[in-house]
Amino acid sequence: MLDWPTVSIIVTCYNESACIEKCLDSIIAFDYPGHLLEIIVVDGMSDDETRELIKKFCQFYGYIQMIDNPRRLKPAGNNLGIMSASHEYVLIMDGHTAYPPDYIEKVIAGSIATGSDNYGGIIEVVPRNNTLTGQTLAAVNTSPFAVGNAYYRIGTDQVRKVDTVPFGCFKRELFNRIGLFNPDLPRAEDRDLNARIISAGGSIYLDPSIQCRYFIRSNLKEYLKWIKQNGLWVFYASRFTDTSFRSWRNYIPLLFLLYCLALLPLYLAAPPALLFTMLFPLGLYLFLDILFSARIAIHNR
User: Fold this and answer.
1) What is the torsional sign of CA 68, 73, 78, 79?
2) What is d(CA 198, CA 163) in angstroms, rounded to the nearest whole number?
3) Which terminus of the chain has a smaller tally of CB atoms within 10 A, N or C?
4) Buried (b) or exposed (e) across 33-49, using 16+ Cβ within 10 A?
């Protein structure tokens, strides 16, 4: 039996009134010994009911505390939480995610067994609101056609080394070696940190037996804004960090967009013999789109 270490849980949030109760309820239900835990909720000065909901948890549970994040950016909040953490391990958690009761036990046991610098699991993407749009967006974000080989989204059948995992389980001393989260990155801050771990010779492991429920945006306008910012910051981040963390899957949407933009002038200028070759990528895309859409529809009917 393991001699369980102490763990600091950091939840960074902003305007999460729809999800923060589910998140904190799942955390206090952990099987892990309560006297070995501290929970630090870092709030970005929310202007909805989030702060009031957090304060209620703080009143009932002495090991929960709330600190303010005036910058509102998630990496800045993570850093405030890490600097306030006093325990051996640090778990970064998300305000719109619910976790299973054995989550901490599994990530701590896996981290110790593998000697990894970051250990995490798979996310089950579910809609925040159970509308048709919400269900569709949730299904899209678990399809390899949409997210490529992101194993933490599409799943895997074994514990494996990866380049990133959601949230994360770290030894506190790791941040003394490689530094904190980059506070200037409003997106992709976790990928930047994980790239620095790998560059320093560290390892990251994904465990498919660990699964948590991630509540994805169900409003199409909010979702498109979120996905646009994520895509932009994968490339724009190079202005704020020397760490390279782009993957081949990040270039495919950009290359396909450029191809589509070039298709009309090429179609007008190219000889008829080349039309099939020019249109083949578009035809392949449409075929795969229909194929994966049909698979999703059958799976969710």
Assistant:
1) negative
2) 8
3) N
4) eeebbbbbbbbbebeee
Structure tokens at 183: 């506070």
Pairing of the two strands 204-216 and 118-127 = parallel
pLDDT, one tens digit per residue, over 73-131 is 999 999 999 999 999 999 999 888 889 999 999 999 999 999 999 999 998 888 888 88
Query: Across-strand partners of 93?
Result: 11
Q: Where do the H-state alpha helices sit in the chain?
A: 20-28, 50-60, 74-84, 103-114, 132-140, 144-147, 151-154, 174-178, 189-199, 220-236, 248-269, 275-300
Chain-centroid distance of CA 129 in Å reads 19
Q: Which of 181, 177, 199, 180 shows the shortest CA–CA distance to 190?
A: 181
Q: Is 8 exposed, middle or buried (0-12, 13-18, 19+ CB in 10 A)?
A: buried
Find tokens 């910058």 and name the residue: 71
Confidence of residue 238 (pLDDT cuts 50, 70, 90): low
Structure tokens belonging to residue 136: 């569709």
- Contacts of residue 30, Cβ cutoff 8 Å, sequence gap at least 6: 37, 99, 101, 102, 103, 104, 105
What is the CATH code of the structural domain delimited by 7-246? Answer: 3.90.550.10
d(CA 284, CA 154): 22
Q: Could you tell me how many residues make up the chain?
A: 301
Q: Are 134 and 128 in contact (CB under 8 A)?
A: yes
Total-model pTM: 0.83
